[in-house]
Amino acid sequence: MRDPDLDRLLAEARTTPPPPPSEDFLARVLAEAHAEQPRPAATGAPAGRTPALVRTPRRPGLRVLFASAFGGAGVVAGLGCAAALGLVVGYANPATLGWLTNDYLSSSVGIELVPVAEVFLSEG
After folding, report:
1. Nearest-angstrom CA–CA distance, 67 and 75
2. Considering 46, 54, 78, 118, which has the largest number of Cβ atoms within 10 A of its Cβ?
3. Does a structural domain hold residue 69?
4. What are the Cα distances from residue 3, in Å, to 12, 13, 16, 51?
């Protein structure tokens, strides 16, 4: 197909109106749309009767408001754990935790990360 033929086909497609969708297609689309609609939640009251006691929605409590101000319950739990660990370490006096850090901080053994680098640095 050459460019003039393609130009002619595209011009014809621009001027020709699209065909309307069939009734069968529209019925299938609507049936699928109705199937995807969310179902109302069951209230537990029999149909046709109103419940005797209508509860009003409750406002969130102080704990919920506090947790949402910091970013949620997970963040508040993490902050609480960090605060508890800070209190324990502060009370235990860091000098008594030397047994935990001696192996890592007082070691004079060096670690050679790239042992073969000497080959490339030597002259000659």
Report:
1. 8
2. 78
3. yes
4. 14, 15, 20, 73
**Residue 23 belongs to what H/E stretch?**
helix 23-36
20 belongs to a structural domain = no
**Identity of the residue numbered 80:** G
Residue 67, judged by CB atoms within 10 A of its CB (0-12, 13-18, 19+), counts as middle
Contact 79, 69 (CB under 8 A): no
Find the domain containing 102 and state its range. Answer: 63-107
Q: Is residue 11 part of a domain?
A: no
- pLDDT tens digits, residue range 1-56? 789 899 999 999 999 988 899 999 999 999 999 999 888 776 665 555 555 566 67
Strands (E), the chain: none
Number of domains in the chain: 1
